[in-house]
Write the structure tokens for this entry.
Amino acid sequence: MSDMDMEDDGSGIVKKFMFLNRKAPHGTVYALEGLEVVLITAAFDQDVSLVFTDDGVYQLMKGIDTKGIEVKDFSKTYRALEGYDIEKLYVDRTSMEARGLTEDDLIVDVTVMSDDEMKNLMAEQDVVISF
Amino acid sequence: MLHIVNKSATERSSLESCLRLATKGSAVLLIEDAVYAATKGGAAAAKIQAAQADLKIYALGPDLAARGMAGRVLDGVNVVDYGGFVDLVAEHSNCQSWL
């Protein structure tokens, strides 16, 4: 597709989208709703990064069992993201360690980032959406 | 007095205020996102452990399980189910929810 075509309908433009997850699952609806929006965005072939920081790190815990509180367990969905070509998952090391967690506690493979790496990643985005 | 806290201690100040203002011998029940405070290695673990000298700390089991935290509960924290939640409310003459 030529540059001219891209400008005509915009369909070929790829932007860098970051979804910034900062909330624990279940206590609020943010984590689940954020995940739904990520899946929608995947349909538009954008350059998507998922970042988990602060309490958002808790979304990726292994061993989640929601039967007792009768809500949907969406933690398995994170493992399906690869199938939607969403492969850039990042976890903030500072947040993870402050919660006594390690990569082994998480349900998916992630890239663990330092504060410097995280701030650079944020700075290079076209769009940042927070949940 | 039974104090009930439902917000994450790393996001809101409700647990900190509760622990600061609860009188000796009171019970504190952690539910929903507040249960993370009762888990090992977390930022609030030291506060909970210090509070155990004067307060009885409880955490709601189904909320721990739903967060993958059932196996990480701090020593001395009493895990209760919904029936235990009801018992706590019934046992105390009054209760305060820290919203």
About this structure: The helical segments of chain A are 3-9, 30-42, 77-80, 93-98, 115-123.
